[in-house]
Write a structure and sequence with these properties.
With 249 residues, the chain is an alpha/beta fold. It has seven helices and eight strands. It has an eight-stranded parallel β-barrel, surrounded by four helices. Helix 3 packs parallel to helix 4 (122-135). The radius of gyration is 17 Å and the shape is globular.
């Protein structure tokens, strides 16, 4: 069983309300049904990542602008995808990408993928986040660690992605004890290769571990050869119905 901790919200863990964070679909011309589905009323969406070419791309894309506009008009937060490459990308490159996202797609914040996790990298991540917040009012920042980072990162972002990986790992995953000091709105889990028959179990794990935002899919990465997030899971309608309406921010 997963290692369980209580939440810090005064609720029992099973009462955690869940919403979706969408890691980023394929291009709207490749996945038009997926992008259209996101604007269906009462879908419990917290945010959607816009990722053109591992970032904003080299020129404005009218199809991506239209897709982002429809989401924002529906009151859904759109985040630009920034790849920190575990600290290998320079501060200037990240800020330049952020400017392009804002100029071309009017994003509401940023999802920083492959974010470092160690304590030594925290000052540079803080510097990046502070700069990003200065670029747009009420910028929403998600740090995509994919695992539990040094606790200090929790003070630098609106949300941390503390699990990214296959169902085979998630079902036995452990949550760091320090996360109990924060509400579920602070944490997000991305799980791929998750069979329909384990949907209830996966939702129970997310709630017990105190994650308020999730994305589960039966798509797999085929050993790292494909992107499991490019299309919707085959059980999307069932997943939406299990979480229920009224969670969208």
């Amino acid at each position: 069983m997963p290692y369980l901790t209580p939440t810090a919200t005064g609720q029992s863990s099973t009462d955690v309300r869940l919403g979706f964070g969408v890691p980023g679909f394929a291009h709207p011309l490749v996945a038009p049904a997926e992008w259209a589905e996101l604007t269906r009323p009462a879908t419990p969406l917290n945010w959607v990542v816009l990722n053109i070419a591992n970032g904003p791309g080299t020129r404005p894309d009218p199809h991506c602008l239209a897709a982002a506009g429809r989401l924002r008009n529906a009151g859904i937060r759109v985040l630009g995808h920034l790849d920190m490459t575990y600290g290998a990308r320079s501060f200037g490159e990240l800020v330049s990408d952020a400017h392009r996202f804002l100029d071309w797609y009017r994003v509401d914040g940023f999802s920083i993928d492959r974010c470092p996790t160690e304590r030594a990298a925290l000052p540079e991540v803080r510097r990046t986040v502070t700069t990003l917040r200065a670029l747009v009012d009420d910028a929403y920042i998600v740090l995509g660690h994919g695992t539990h980072p040094y606790p200090g990162y929790a003070e630098s972002a609106d949300q941390l992605v503390t699990f990214t990986g296959p169902w085979s790992d998630y079902r036995w995953s452990q949550v760091a004890e320090w996360t109990a000091e924060y509400p579920p709105e602070k944490f997000c889990h991305f799980v791929h290769g998750m069979p329909r028959g384990h949907l209830e179990e996966a939702l129970r794990i997310a709630r017990w571990q105190g994650a308020g935002t999730i994305y589960f899919t039966d798509r797999t990465d085929r050993g790292g050869l494909t992107d499991p997030w490019e299309t919707m899971p085959g059980y999307w309608d069932e997943l939406v119905s299990r979480i229920g309406p009224g969670v969208s921010e």
